[in-house]
């Protein structure tokens, strides 16, 4: 029932659920998701899902809750097969339209004993999605409604439903036919001697077999001397695993008033009467069909779960595309903050102004005492220090925003290259390929906080080497800027620095704090910057996760819940 890989995820219930509750739970799980992402076989998966829901709503739940409900016999077949004629013959009067105009059955006709009419007119029971119209009704009734006809000829406890043609030119008729098949206690396929080998006939028969229906087949319009046709049809049934179906032959004969001669349908009439009037026969049909349908769920629901797992795999792939694009952007940003490329233009000019005019030298104070500003005296930050700090902040902010822009662009490019991703992006706000409008504001806060963190590191961990501590004190804010310039790779780029000052940050900081302390502060500062940037990128990536969630793409819990519900159903049986 459940693939071995999923067994560990299935929790066995302490006490089995009643069968109807297990079916309701399974129905809820099947209805809880949609097949959203475009993938091979997704249309078939949607049909599979709807078929299961139809059979639960239209047959299983009503039948389990009311085993005494009338039996539903659905007659189906291709256009012109003669099913309406057969219904009229079994009833003994013209209740369903026949004729050369195709399709002749526009709305489904249900014929029942008068004592059962109230049951079939109640929309709470079988086929709850259909409206009910008391008959007789005009031949041309159209719509998703059942026309309920009464007939004293039919035995109590049995109803005949003349389904629309399965190959009707009307698309909704195909859906009706599938839904009626799912709701049937007994399903009778009507075909002709001329068309019994058509692929459509066998698709119908296979579907009925796979859905667990009690099955009858009628081969009509068999010409005189057509024993070879009858024999060949029986062989085909056997070859397709359908030899257990009740088989009936109706010879070519005259149709009058929309009916066959009564004797032509005698065998079908006797079979149906035996099913409805004999308690054992009725119980056997219910047991056989109910059990057969439930048996099919052992494979059909896991097959559906496997299709859901394909959607989950696509969801995972799309998420990985998002993660990959932003991880690449983060790696590029990390490199750009190491290789000196950030220290150009305004930043370089402000650094040279700071280092070459004496402000850097004044940041170091000769004499004994504690590091930093003495006592509680407040000292005004030099203009060049403020300008350098602002230039560094602005350059880093621009670099982060540009990296986020490229990452968003890359995600959209990757998604558009895949059918599933392209479908998700279709008709959506095109701003997804750019950074969010809130990002610059968040980046400004993050970079300012990082600069403050650097100053705190200098203040709390920048222990001056003993060899220079008794001679030098320093300004934490100014040295924090020196550390930032060193972190950003000053002297590693191809920029020519006047006066041979390319290694000033590294030489100064190493001489002041020592190599080990400098490595520790640098590592912590770089990790903090990467962490803050990573959080910004994660927040940007959330937009794409919201697209997946908003579209209703199933997550990894959905197939597990389907397997669990299937297991619970098996225990409940």
TrEMBL record:
It comes from the Bacteria. Gene3D superfamilies: P-loop containing nucleotide triphosphate hydrolases (3.40.50.300). InterPro entries: GTPase_Era-like (IPR005662), P-loop_NTPase (IPR027417). This is Dynamin family protein.
